[in-house]
Amino acid sequence: MAITITINGKPRAFDVPAEMPLLWLLRDVAQMTGTKFGCAAGLCGACSVLVDGERAFSCQTPAGDAAGKSVTTIEGLAEQPLGKALTTAWDETDVVQCGYCQPGQIVAAAALLKANPRPDDAAIDAGMSGNICRCGTYPRIRAAIKRAAAINAGGKA
Amino acid sequence: MDLTLNASRREMLAGSALLGGALLVPLTACAATGSPGKGGLAANTWLAVTPDGKIALALPKTEMGQGILTAITMIAAEELAVAPEAVQVTIAEGDAARFAPLSQGTGGSTSIREVWQPLREAAAKARAALLQAAATQWKAPVADCVAHDGAVLHKPSGKVLTFAALVPVAAAAPLPKDAPLLSPTEFKVLGKAQRRLDGAAKARGTAEYGIDVIVPGMKFAAIAECPIFGGKLAGLDEAAAKAVPGVDAVIRDDDALMIVAGNTWAARQALIAADPKWDAPPAAKGAQQAAIVGTVAAGLNQPGTVAINADPKVALPAATRTITAEYHQSFLAHATMEPSNCVAQVKDGACEIWTGSQIPSDAREAAAKALGFPLEKVTFHNRLMGGGFGRRLEPDMVVRAVGLARRVPWPVKLTWAREQDMTHDFFRPAYADRFTVGVDAAGRPVSWTHKIAGSSIMARLMGPAFKGVDEDVVDGLNAPLYDGFPRTVTFQQVESSVPTGWWRGVGPLRTAFAVECMVDELANAANIDPIGYRLQLTSDPRARAVLEAVRKQSGWDDKRTPNSGLGVAVIHNWDTYMAAVADVSVGADRQIRINRVTVAVDCGQVVNPSGIRAQIDSGVIFGGSAALWGEITIAGGAVEQSNFHDYRVMRMAECPVIETMIIDSHEKPGGMGEPPCAVIGPALANALHALTGKRVRSLPLQKGFEALA
To answer: Is the model's pTM score more than 0.90?
Structure first.
């Protein structure tokens, strides 16, 4: 059964079981490896994508549930204005270390800023605590989200 | 002189050309034009100026997040007078011979300390060769020539020759035997915050980690390893596994089951369907947490081997009081964000491997040994790592993957599920430490006996060749900060079925926790301020400076706010001095919370201050997670934890404010990856005592605190 999902603006058809998690569809079938495997249990956020603009753990999202929907991965987000604001802020704050969790962090931050364009520390804590970073980039992620919010609002960081 | 950078063509073809956009170009780009870099200027076997005047650097160490790619590139850029962004740096293949006498092994905060001098010397020689080539062309004194921005400038006339123009002449002459190094006053790159060179690609999802490698025709595999250490695969439902659509092969090892399929999910589903059964000898099945840690603690009652002998020449007054304390530290998993994985292909008597290793030379050798292949038949393409922390010093995932790949006709990517990764780690060993310290009337030590019991990682790694006392066990105790009293340290090796390995902070992670908590207890017993007490015990000016710095910055001498306890620790390891003050509180739910951590570091000459601050954030959070919550426990011979729901790690909302002060220094550069991870644990335990009056002597602290409360 072909499942059609719009990925980063392009409709694509996949012949996969409906219950296959979107994570593996993206990584192994579509060969888009920016979305990371971390836990396959919805615990770490490394696999975060946007589904119709909302943050989703792709490891917990069956491909069938994404059928007919619009999925934005880090590769697509990085080309959008909000994604560019975030990646620029990430660069300027020198956030990444190993970097493995960062695509998921940036996707989560995009969802946060869509819902709350000027998040305070408490909102950042609430919006970002579904994402684990083992390298401990949290202080710089916090600063980068504030910088991205400023960039996205048209102001200077 | 030919360019002797010998990265293979295959690296270029299969590799990560898009790793960092324009920033990171594989060295093999210069090999693509014909004979490998013919006409380039080789500074050594891993640093060259290419015929087009670019600096080409094969990274002699591995990048797992610690920022070494950026730091090493900065060192090369400084001596060769280019911007770090202009250096073409690539992640090197596993190749011990190419980098000898340097080891590709990346751990123990050794990278900058080992690479600093040879890299600067090689780069300075290449610079001198370029300057000489320009001077010859201009018939000018070499002293009138300076390297600047990829070119040589003739100062009196303002004439410029690019490196590209000079390389043919410079490469035709022998490299100078030695050349002057830049002095710190000339540094333009070192000591200035440099944005990471791999940051942009990582943030945009285009950086390639081992787990992201895709080889044409590749299949995907999942693995279940025997949950019981020392057990075997006893049975499976092979028909059910093969009935899962997309399954290509079911592969059995003695102690593991692997399924090869068209995608990872199908392989994982087939593993579930296979429902593997395991068996183990009664002793293996019977291993239980309480018995294991009990046996470790009982090791303290053995005589042990003397590691450090009290100096009999030191004559001190008799003790007026003896203080004893015993500390216990838990098993820990590494839980790297990128689970264990490896891509391998075995074909026509040769093997290619793609994964991220902290020691790719050894991983390559382990694969060759496992396959019975000559070393030159094994190519190891190293990749960025989604965390290492010591886990990727072990080649077990590589050995497993090549064993799989030799039995199937495809290249195969083997990915461990998080649950498999967490339960088949090489764990930070559980340790026990007992101190018996005699103090004089002023509360100062006059005798010090420290007994240690636990696993020896070196004994496992070295096998029968191992002799004497494991250096890792006493790392941090041989050159103690606190002087003026004799000490005796003994070690009793105690092993269990739990495999143990290097974990970030290594030996001093354990010794600093024990010693810095004990010193705090002595300060408390003497009723002396813990920082003041440490200052009394150490005459080392660099140690005193970091202590004074955190004392000031943390507000140590201010009136304490309610529900705030401050604790201190100081270490000197890896050529780095570091002190930390942790500020903790305890909630109504009895949960320990870290509010703020103040760190002062003297790591000698600073390479990248942004990297240093990042490593301190990192070590405080990674080490703080472990100290508060980290614990792997064993039941029925198997690890009980499996994923992030029961192996708690710090999240954004739990992250403290972290303030870092870097002491200005031109001493030789020290390590930065390990120290903050080692210093934070005792600072937290000491803060908890300051706040609650409860001395938690076992890790993890939250569990130990609840047991005392």
So the answer is: yes
